[in-house]
User: Which sequence fits this backbone?
C-alpha cells in the first residue's frame, strides 16, 4: 500500500529522514537507507540548513530503486516558480509522488551566508501550486501535457510559541491542500498532545518529528538550530548518562511509545545515526519501559 | 529615505587611483540627512583625498541628486565639475546614475545604497518597506512580511521562531508574531485564516 493510501488508514505511521551526500559518493546514503525498508516512507532533505548537497530529487529516485517509498522535500528558498514547478513535474516523471513542502532554513547561519535567497513562492503558495499542477495547468495558465499526481505534505512546529499561531498555520496549510504533516522536532509527547488537540478535528495525519540525541556535544548543536527547544529534563538525562547514545535511543523509544497511545505516527530524525532506528522502533513496541 | 553607508577608505582610494583632480557632488536629501553626505562627510572626504595626493577642485550639494533636471542645471555649467578627471558622489545609486546620465564624467560612488529606511532616531533606521510595487499592508496589519520576514513569507510564519524571535536572529522579533499579536488584538484571526495572498507579479524589468 502506498503512503498516500496509508494516510487514510488507522495505521501508526513511521517515517524517517535521510540527508543526501555532499559530493557524488552515494554509498553511505544507500547503506543508511538499507535499514529503513520496513518504514512507511523515508524523507530526503533538500539542502538542509542551507548547506549544499546532492539534490533531493536524485536521492529520492535512488530510494525508490532501492524499494523504499521516498518523500521528496522541496524548499521554497532556492528556486523560483519556474524551477519549483519544473522540479515537481520532474519528480512525478521519475515516479516520486510524495512531496514535503517547506520554506527551508534561512542561509544566514550556514555555510552559504552570503547567497541570494529566492523565496519567490511561500509555502502556502507552493502547496497550492502543486495542487494546481494536478489539474493540468501551471501558474502561467498554460495547459500541461500530462498532469502530475502528488501526495502533498507540509510542516508545522508544535513547540514554537505562540503555539496558537502554528495551529492556525496548520489549518491554513491544510486548506491549501496539505494531506499530511510532519513536524519539527518535539521532545515530549505530552507537549505535542497539547498542540495535536488543537488540530486533530481537521482529521489530517500528523507525524511529530523526534530527534535522536547521540551525545552531549550533539545536543548543544541541536539546541542552536531554528525552532529547537530541548526541555531541561531531557538535557539532564543526556548530561548525566554514562552512555548518552543509549540514553538518546531510550528517550526516542519512550517518546514513540507515548505517541502510540494517541498520535497518527512519528517521523524519526536520526541525523546520520539511522542504523539505530530499528532499535528505537523495537524499544517503542516493548512493554514495561514506562507506565 | 534611502539609507546609504560609506565605502571603505581602501575602496575609495582604489577607485580614484587613475585620477589626479576630483570634484565632489553630494546630495542634500537622503544622504545628507543620514549623515553620509552632509557637510561634515564632504569635508572629511576632501581632507582624506588631499592627504592622499589628490587635488579636489571643489564641491557642490544638489538638493536632490536623483533629480536629473537639477543635476543638469547645477552641474553642466560648473567649470570645476567639467574640468575634474573624475567626480565622486556622496549620494545613493539613483543620484550617482542621474549625474552619470546627464554628464559624460567618470562617476565614482563613495557610498553604498542600503535600503529605504524609517528613522527611529538619528542613526537608527528600520527597513520596513522593500518598495515592491504590490503593497499588502492592508492584509497584514500595517507590518510588511515581504520585507521584514527574512523568508518573505506573505501567508504566515515558518516554524523557526522561538519565543517570538526570528530563527535568523534571536534578538529580532518574528515579523509574523508581531502581525499575529495585532490580528488577535483587532479580532482579525478569522480573516487571516481564510486569507490567501497569491504569488507576487514581479515587475523588475
Assistant:
Amino acid at each position: 500500500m502506498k503512503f498516500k493510501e496509508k494516510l487514510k488508514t488507522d495505521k501508526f505511521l513511521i517515517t524517517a529522514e535521510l540527508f543526501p551526500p555532499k559530493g557524488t559518493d552515494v554509498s553511505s546514503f544507500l547503506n543508511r537507507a538499507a535499514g529503513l525498508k520496513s518504514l512507511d516512507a523515508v524523507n530526503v532533505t533538500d539542502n538542509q540548513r542551507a548547506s549544499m548537497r546532492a539534490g533531493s530529487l536524485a536521492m529520492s529516485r535512488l530510494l525508490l530503486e532501492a524499494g523504499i517509498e521516498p518523500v521528496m522535500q522541496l524548499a521554497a528558498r532556492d528556486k523560483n516558480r519556474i524551477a519549483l514547478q519544473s522540479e515537481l513535474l520532474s519528480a512525478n516523471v521519475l515516479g516520486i509522488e510524495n512531496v514535503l513542502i517547506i520554506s527551508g532554513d534561512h542561509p544566514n547561519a550556514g555555510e552559504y551566508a552570503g547567497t541570494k535567497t529566492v523565496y519567490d513562492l511561500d509555502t502556502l503558495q507552493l502547496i497550492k501550486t502543486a495542487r494546481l499542477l494536478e489539474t493540468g495547468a501551471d501558474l502561467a495558465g498554460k495547459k500541461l501535457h500530462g498532469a502530475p499526481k502528488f501526495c502533498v505534505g507540509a510542516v508545522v512546529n508544535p513547540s514554537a510559541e505562540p503555539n496558537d499561531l502554528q495551529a492556525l498555520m496548520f489549518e491554513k496549510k491544510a486548506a491549501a491542500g496539505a494531506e499530511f504533516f510532519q513536524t519539527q522536532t518535539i521532545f515530549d509527547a505530552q507537549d505535542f498532545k497539547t498542540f495535536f488537540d488543537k488540530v486533530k478535528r481537521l482529521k489530517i495525519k500528523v507525524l511529530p518529528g523526534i530527534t535522536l540525541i547521540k551525545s552531549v556535544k550533539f545536543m548543544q548543536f541541536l539546541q542552536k538550530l531554528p525552532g529547537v527547544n530541548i526541555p531541561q529534563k531531557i538535557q539532564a538525562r543526556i548530561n548525566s548518562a554514562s552512555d548518552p547514545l543509549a540514553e538518546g535511543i531510550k528517550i526516542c523509544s519512550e517518546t514513540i511509545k507515548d505517541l502510540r497511545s494517541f498520535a497518527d505516527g512519528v517521523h524519526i530524525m536520526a541525523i546520520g545515526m539511522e542504523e539505530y532506528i530499528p532499535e528505537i522502533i523495537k524499544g517503542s513496541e516493548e512493554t514495561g519501559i514506562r507506565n | 529615505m534611502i539609507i546609504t553607508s560609506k565605502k571603505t577608505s581602501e575602496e575609495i582610494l582604489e577607485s580614484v587611483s587613475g585620477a589626479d583632480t576630483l570634484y565632489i557632488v553630494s546630495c542634500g536629501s537622503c544622504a545628507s540627512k543620514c549623515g553620509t553626505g552632509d557637510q561634515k562627510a564632504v569635508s572629511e572626504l576632501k581632507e582624506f583625498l588631499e592627504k592622499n595626493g589628490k587635488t579636489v577642485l571643489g564641491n557642490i550639494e544638489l538638493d536632490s541628486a536623483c533629480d536629473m533636471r537639477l543635476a543638469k542645471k547645477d552641474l553642466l555649467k560648473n567649470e570645476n565639475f567639467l574640468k575634474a578627471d573624475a567626480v565622486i558622489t556622496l549620494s545613493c545609486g539613483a543620484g550617482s546614475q542621474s549625474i552619470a546620465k546627464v554628464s559624460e564624467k567618470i562617476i565614482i560612488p563613495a557610498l553604498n545604497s542600503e535600503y529605504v529606511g524609517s528613522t527611529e532616531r538619528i542613526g537608527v533606521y528600520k527597513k520596513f518597506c522593500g518598495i515592491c510595487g504590490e503593497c499588502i499592508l492592508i492584509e497584514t496589519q500595517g507590518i510588511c512580511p515581504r520585507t521584514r520576514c527574512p523568508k518573505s513569507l506573505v501567508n504566515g510564519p515558518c516554524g523557526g521562531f522561538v519565543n517570538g524571535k526570528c530563527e535568523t536572529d534571536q534578538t529580532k522579533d518574528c515579523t509574523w508574531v508581531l502581525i499575529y499579536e495585532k490580528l488577535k488584538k483587532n479580532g482579525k484571526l478569522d480573516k487571516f485564516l481564510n486569507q490567501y495572498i497569491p504569488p507576487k507579479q514581479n515587475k523588475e524589468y
In short: The beta strands of chain A are 13-18, 41-44, 70-75, 98-102, 151-156, 180-186, 205-211, 265-269. The interface with chain B takes residues 76-77, 81, 103-106, 108-109, 117, 119-125, 128, 139, 155-157, 160-162, 165-166, 168-169, 171-172, 175-176, 183-184, 226-229 of chain A (CB under 8 Å). The mean pLDDT of chain A is 96.
